[in-house]
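Hey, can you fold this one?
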Amino acid sequence: MKKAMYAGTFDPFTNGHNDILKRSFSVFDEVTILVAENRTKTPLFTAQERVSMLEETFANDPRVKVDSWEGLIVDYAKKNDIACIIRGLRPTGDFEAEFQMASMNKRLYPEIETVFLVTEGDNYYVSSSLVKEIYKHGRDIKEFLPSKIYEWLLKKGKGKL
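Sure. Predicted structure:
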């Protein structure tokens, strides 16, 4: 079985993330969505909330596993026998930072590979930060999120953003 990991803060998980995940199944049999707990960011949802909403979203897809981790993602990969990290690239300057991260991950865990998937179509400009910003200003963001994630955002409410 070919296993990979798709790591990020996913606050919230967007249709752009979903596109990368779904396309990764042409290469991998199982993908762990790893919710990264980043102390330098102030997320809208707690790590446990993000895990719960992703578990709900992918409850009927046995190829998707969901977990969270506070630490280096290469340490999670090594501990869980995962040999590949999936990363999405947008045409918005992502490459340099992603290349640097992939290079460092390879240095720390030589067995790890990073696979870059280029964001397609209507998702190339979508980011979690932009979606939250649009929502804060009272605009509907339903078109940018999977339905279960949108429901969680509505429950959270604008006053809490």
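The chain has a mean pLDDT of 92. Let me know if you want another pass with a different chain boundary.
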